[in-house]
Amino acid sequence: MEKELALLVVIVNNGYSQDVINLAKDKGARGATIVNGSGSVKPEAKKLYGIEINPEKELVLIVVAKELVDTLLTVIYENLGTTSLAQGVAFSLPINHATSNLYKQFLSKTEE
Question: Which of 1, 54, 74, 107 has its CA 20 to 30 A from that of 96?
Fold first, then answer.
């Protein structure tokens, strides 16, 4: 049986991706992919959110077992959320289909 997987997407200010990865690994994630990007917002966003918007961003993509999602989102928000210097936001997406080699990474020895 295939394990249910999810993709965590964490967007943080430049330089904070390793902090995301360390927190995620401490809670059971196995690895991540980092993508560099630039943010774009209206000038009113500073007033609305009360934060300085840093245009240089890092997206951290982490595939995890679905049961880890709530724990990871909570720990990331508590440590790297919008009130921190990382100004992180995070969300998850379900993985409905994937290649068998991806699923195999999440099988326990008893399921193989």
Answer: 74
